[in-house]
Request: fold
Amino acid sequence: MADKKNRILDTTAKKALAAAIATPAALFGAVTAVNHLAYRRSNIAAASEVYNRVTGNKKKMADAVEWDNLILDRSEANEQRQTLPTLLSFKVSVEDTDFDGMQTLVLNRRSINDRAVIYVHGRVLVDQPSIYQWKFLDTIARRTRAEVIAPIYPLAPVHGFREAYDKIEALYLETVKKYGAQNVTLMGDSAGAGIAAGLCQSFSPKGIEQPGHLILISPWVDLTLGNPDIAHYEAQDPMLSASGMRKVGKVWADGTDPRDPRLSPINGPVSDLRNVMVFTGTREILHPDAVLFHQRVSAYGNHSELFVGTGLHNNFPLYPIPEASGTINSIVTAITMD
Reply:
C-alpha cells in the first residue's frame, strides 16, 4: 500500500516538475509569439523597451515640476568638462580636444583617414551622450575609414540654439577643409538629428557645400510636435513625453518662434539636401514627422532612404538589439561609399 502511495506521489511530483518546467517555456513561447507576430521584433528589443520605460525619464518629463528640477540639475553638470563613462572601453583611439572653446571628442584619428563623421548627439537638448551613443560611435569608427568627431555642444537651459549652431557649423567648415564636403557625413540622433538637418538647410544660402551624407536617427524635426498623429505614438513611446519636449524646445529656441526652420527643419527647404538616410521606430513619438521629412526630401527628387524599425523605440540603432545590426551595416556602407 505504501509503495503504491509512493508511486502515485512520485508520478504526481514528476507531473508537477514537468508543469513547472513547461510553464516558463510556455510563457517564453507566448512572449516570443507576441513580439514576432504583433510587433515583429525580437525579445531582446522588447526587453530594451521595458528597460527604457522603467529607467527612463518619461514620467519626469510629463511632470512639470520634476522635469524643471531635472533640467536644472543637468544644467550644472553640463557646464563642467565631460568625462567618458567609466565602464566604457573603446576599440579605437579617443582624443579629448577643444574646438573654438567647445569640448570635442575625436575617435579614430589616423594619418590614413580619408573621410570624417560629425556626430551630433540628442538627449532632449539637456544631457550629454550616453554609453549607448559612445558604443555606437566606437563601432562606426572601427568599421569605417572615418575620423569620428563628437562635439559636446552647448545645451539648454543655459544656452540657446544659436550658440550651438554657430560652433557646430564652424566645426563642419574646418572638417570640410581637411576632407572635402563629399567625404564628410553629418549624422545625429533625436534632437541632434534635428540640429543636423536644420544646419544643412541653412548651408546653401551661405554658400556652404552640403555634406556627402546626412544621416538622421529618430530625428526631432518639429520642435512644436504639432503633428496630430503624435498623440497616438506618445502613448506607445517608452522614453519621451511631448509636454516635456515642448518645454525644452521653447527654452532652446531662446525667443525665436519654435516653428522657425532652423529649429523645425520639417518647415525648411529640402531641395538642396543630398544622400539623406532616415531611421525611425514605430513605437516612438518622433516617427510620424520623421516619415514626413523623408517624404518631403523625396518629393523634390533628392535621394532619401527611409528605414523603419517595426515595433522599435527611439534611437533603436544605438542599442544592443538584433535589429540594430542591419541598420549599422547600412550606415557603414553609406559612410564608406566612394
Observations:
- The chain has one domain: 57-336.
